[in-house]
Amino acid sequence: MPPKPFPFKIGIGTDICEIERMGAIIQTGYHTRWARKVLTYLEWPSFETKLQEFENPGEKAVRQRCLSQWMAGRWAMKEAVIKAHKYRRLFPRDVSIISHPRKHLGNSSKPYALIEPRARTVAMNQRTAERRGLELLHKLGNGSKSDHDYFSTILNTQLLHRLGMSEGSLYARRKKVQEEDRQVAEVSLSHERRYAVAVCMASDEDSAPQDGLVLVDDGIGDSIHVPEQGDRGWQDTIPKV
User: Fold this and answer.
1) Residue 237: which pLDDT band, with cuts at 50, 70 and 90?
2) How far is CA 1 from the centre of its chain?
3) Would you call 191 helix, strand, or coil by DSSP?
4) What is the Cα–Cα distance from 130 to 175, expressed in whole angstroms?
5) What is the pLDDT of residues 127-143, one digit of tens each?
6) H-helix or E-strand spanning residue 157
7) Would you state the pLDDT for residue 143?
8) Which three-class secondary structure state does DSSP give residue 188?
9) Would you state the pLDDT for residue 147?
10) Residues 170-187, buried b or exposed e (16+ Cβ, 10 A)?
11) Of 28-37, 42-51, 128-137, which gets the smallest average pLDDT?
12) Per DSSP, what are the bridge partners of residue 174?
């Protein structure tokens, strides 16, 4: 007889990130590009604060070290969260690391993770994308890598044909979600001189993928997508903290 399985649907993940790895990104000037690929709009205010501190006058090595530690910590926590979810394929931008005080924890600012629900993708052609004010830098469906590869939907030739779109003409964004649809996961972060180490404990339900994850925006009515940086309305999505 096999042993009894673990009785709780809980996943645990851990990750370690070398701080100097992030320092190398800063030295090459790609830290803002890194942030666009990794951070969600909920995390953007924290990044902007750290960026302002980095650009302030002072010892450059100290300022770079502070930003490197913050970036390494964010990366380690996101990777730990991803590893704690074996039943779902998460990407860095499915996870928001938040440090806002929580009342039920005595207003503690200990970081925690918000997991996006299984996202529905809003697909649109170029005419609709221009009407919605999208920054038309990345396309899905042409087989190339882009900043929007975190979508779990596979945009294949059959899907393009069903939507009446040609190869490479499909633009996509996430569908808007309600705050209560996000799931909290607990994370813990520790810094050592060279490394940032994170652990995550999360609910890990074995749920089947949902059908119909792609919605088509025909350009009529209000938009139903979350703007990316550079899109019209991007600044309106950033929380005021």
Assistant:
1) low
2) 42
3) strand
4) 17
5) 888 888 887 655 554 44
6) helix 157-162
7) 41
8) strand
9) 38
10) bbbbbbeeeeeebeebeb
11) 128-137
12) 121
- Selection from 207, 217, 96, 211 nearest residue 153 by Cα: 211
Segment (H or E) for 54: helix 44-55
**For residues 185 and 200, what is the distance between their CA atoms, to the nearest angstrom?**
7
210 alpha carbon, distance to own chain's centre: 20
Q: What is the mean pLDDT of residues 90-104?
A: 82
Q: What is the pTM of this model?
A: 0.77
Structure tokens belonging to residue 215 = 């919605």
Nearest by Cα to 186 from 81, 107, 96: 81
What does residue 132 show for φ and ψ, rounded to 5 degrees?
-80, -5
Q: How far apart are CA 162 and CA 214, in angstroms?
A: 11
What's residue 144's pLDDT? 39
Q: How far is CA 227 from CA 78, 174, 203, in A?
A: 21, 8, 28
Could you please report the per-residue DSSP string of 118-182? SPPEEEE-HHHHHHTT--TT--BSSS---TTTT--S---HHHHHHTT--TT-BEEEEBP--GGGS
Q: Are 228 and 234 in contact (CB under 8 A)?
A: yes
Which of 73 and 214 is assigned the larger pLDDT? Answer: 73
